[in-house]
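Students often ask why we bother encoding 3D structure as a string. The short answer is that it lets us treat folding as translation between two languages. Here is a chain of 173 residues written in the first language.
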Amino acid sequence: MIKKQNKKGFTLVELLIVIAILGTLAVVVLLALDPIQQLARTRDAGRKSGVTQLGHAVTAYATTHNGTPPAELNWSTTLVTGGEIQVAPSAIAYSVTGSAACTSNPVNGTWCYDISGINFVVYARLESKSSLSLCTAGQVAFTAFSSLNARGGTVCAAAGTTTLAPATLTFVD
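And here it is in the second language, the structure alphabet:
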């Protein structure tokens, strides 16, 4: 009498097929997550937080100085010496080629400031696709805090814009 052997386990071919399927799924998931955009969204969140912090600090300074915001020259130093902030928020590098924060009184290459009379705006350029999707084609997105609007949010401007004026802001969120 011949005894029949029971073989348990998977064959090499079955294991290779499973590994190939798992590898394909991993690639699809990584492409869906888009780690470069995840990092850009993280940097944008830091910019939004910094702009809001600086906007509130400028508002506090203006409140204690008869409604007059700090002058554009050395504005962040004025906030530190005035006690509104301990230190200016650190720089957040841009990964998009050709991106720059602004040309109007930049601090640490990220934070921008412009005043017109008693109105001011603190702003920084955004870079993630989710931020840019709020704007129409040919526009760039900024996060801004405006004393004229008494709020912060996302602002769209024409491509190539590097300066925002307090009176020209229209928030899209």
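Translate back mentally: The radius of gyration is 25 Å. Keep this in mind for the problem set.
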